[in-house]
Specification:
This protein is of the alpha+beta class. 29% of the residues lie in helices and 28% in strands. Helix 7 (210-216) packs across helix 8 (218-234) and helix 11 crosses helix 12. Bound molecules: guanosine-5',3'-tetraphosphate. GO terms for molecular function: GTP binding; GTPase activity; translation release factor activity, codon nonspecific; translation release factor activity, codon specific.
Length: 526
């Protein structure tokens, strides 16, 4: 095997996603502990912003700093190079999470055994389904009272629209929780709460082994056998191929806080999870094994120091080997760029790297060259697909309150939009700028950052909008007619594409039925 294929096959790049509080941060930290990447629990700070609208800004700033450090966590485990991409916990930053999902090859979904599938989990799963991303589910907090595991499995299937296959099975739950039977490997792990170390493992021959009865008692052993029989009857045998195709999600049970069931999850994950997969560009499919380098920017992070307007662009490597100081083509601008100080993220530390491989993320210090979705190549004209903007859910007019600073404001808005903080639409009728977000918090972050990083002041004015949708038509005349009829509600996005601003769902429905030749899109990728 060449060095490139060797490096590719040992890489696992994934994200852990969950509804806030299900245990994503705790699980991430425990995985890092196993990788030896950190040595004490509590080292990974949650980057979630717990407070909402009235949160104090220092908190947001602090959180932003933390989320740079924990944006990508790379570590070595058992010969594998693992890259965990962190996603913001707060739902107002969901768009950021969606984009991060374009840079991973698989995901682990954490579900709270008491709460089951929650709203955010459902939404994130939709994005995974759109991309056929393989998912593994970790049912967490078994040390607490929760639902019956069979009910949880049913709920996962119904709510997440994916077939599931348990690969481990809990013995009781909450106060009576005794451990987990590993269906995959026929072993029994006994639960010892609050032990940060390895759990006690009972090696067994088969499910009939009397050692199970000795370990958990006859009643629970009988119940376990009954449950397993039911599982084998109901769920088809696990096939890795089906998991890789995004059709079946293997399910593990455990307790992240107690480091219970985590190692089993990790061991199975490295074995079955995909190494970097081919990526679709507009022009063609790019295989990671291609010798020439290509990659795309999926995230831009502004630096903490407002005096230096520097950012870090996060580049996911799609093919070939990335090398420091090599000339790469920045496809959007046509410029050739060299990167003297690309950073890799290992165990929370940033360090300069000389080379990186498909599946890896490199951070490139940037002073405004990059936008989300930009492609870097060795020379080829490539554009990666799959970084959609979704129709925002909240809209406000942004107005300048300091006429002396209008330049700063424009620049600030432009750069924040390049970072993907929110979306900008310009009303074609009155030229006013509209900012669209998925949550209230983003408006506050924008206002704060404009002031502190650009010295620009703005205020928000209400606009009552239901949705912004991108429109196209094969019939140019029909398109023009629509735009004339709706001229007050037409805007352009930053790429100059036509966007229809519907002020109610009724108006949108009417427009859809009155103008059958017009196609309406709710994400910018079409
Ligand atoms: P998130 O990133 O998905 O938002 O969740 P996070 O890991 O921060 O976990 C949310 C809360 O759930 C934390 O408690 C955490 O300690 C707890 N937790 C995680 N895994 C388990 C588990 O297996 N069992 C139990 N009983 N609790 C678990 P917190 O009180 O909100 O935060 P903290 O003060 O402990 O940090």
């Amino acid at each position: 095997m060449s060095q490139l294929t060797d490096e590719i096959s040992r890489r696992r790049t994934f994200a852990i996603i969950s509804h806030p509080d299900a245990g994503k941060t705790t699980l991430t930290e425990k995985l890092l502990l196993f990788g030896g990447a950190i040595h004490i629990a509590g080292a990974v700070k949650s980057n979630k912003i717990k407070k909402t609208a009235t949160s104090d800004w220092m908190e947001i700033e602090k959180q932003r700093g933390i989320s740079v450090a924990t944006s990508v966590m790379g570590f070595e485990y058992d010969g594998y190079k693992i890259n965990i991409l962190d996603t913001p916990g707060h739902q107002d930053f969901a768009e950021d999470t969606y984009r991060t999902l374009t840079a991973v090859d698989s995901v682990i979904i954490v579900v709270d055994v008491a709460k089951g599938v929650e709203q955010q989990t459902r939404k994130l799963m939709e994005v995974c389904r759109m991309r056929n991303t393989p998912v593994i589910i970790f049912v967490n907090k078994l040390d607490r009272e929760g639902r019956d595991p069979f009910d949880i499995l049913d709920e996962l299937e119904q709510e997440l629209h994916i077939s599931v296959r348990p690969l481990s099975w809990p013995i009781n739950i909450g106060a009576k929780f005794k451990g987990v039977y590993n269906i995959h490997e026929h072993s029994l792990d006994l639960f010892t709460p609050d032990k940060q170390k390895v759990t006690e493992r009972v090696e067994i021959e088969s499910i009939d082994d009397p050692r199970i009865d000795e370990a958990v008692g006859e009643t629970d052993a009988a119940k376990l056998r009954e449950d397993l029989e039911l599982i084998e009857g109901v769920y088809p045998a696990f096939e890795t191929e089906e998991y890789l195709a995004g059709k079946v999600a293997p399910v593990f049970f455990g307790s992240a806080l107690n480091t219970f069931g985590v190692k089993e999850l990790l061991d199975c994950f490295v074995k079955i999870a995909p190494s970097p997969r081919p990526v679709e560009a507009v022009e063609r499919k790019i295989s990671p094994e291609e010798e020439t380098f290509s990659g795309f920017v999926f995230k831009i992070h502004a630096n903490m120091d407002p005096n230096h307007r520097s950012c870090i662009a996060f580049v996911k490597i799609c093919s070939g080997k990335f090398e420091r100081n090599a000339p790469y083509r920045h496809v959007r601008s046509g410029k050739t760029l060299k990167f003297a100080a690309p950073t890799a993220f290992m165990a929370q530390k940033k360090s300069i790297v000389d080379e990186a491989f498909p599946g890896d993320i490199v951070g490139i210090p940037d002073t405004g060259n990059f936008k989300i979705g930009d492609t870097l190549t060795t020379s080829e004209e490539l554009h990666f697909k799959g970084l959609p903007s979704f129709s925002p859910e909240m809209f406000k007019y942004i107005e300048n309150t300091d006429p002396m600073k209008s330049k700063q404001l424009d620049k600030g808005i432009q750069q924040l939009m390049d970072e993907g903080v929110a979306q900008l639409f310009t009303n074609q009728f009155n030229g006013r700028k509209i900012i669209g977000t998925v949550g209230q918090l983003q408006f506050e972050v924008i206002q704060y950052r404009l002031l502190h990083e650009y010295g620009a002041q703005c205020r928000w004015e209400p606009i009552s909008l239901y949705k912004a949708c991108w429109i196209t038509s094969d019939d140019q005349e029909a398109l023009e007619a629509f735009k004339r009829r709706k001229h007050q509600f037409m805007a352009t996005d930053r790429e100059g594409r036509d966007v229809f601003l519907a002020d109610s769902s009724y108006v949108l429905q009417m427009a859809q039925s009155d103008f059958p030749k017009i196609r309406f899109y709710f994400s910018s990728e079409f």
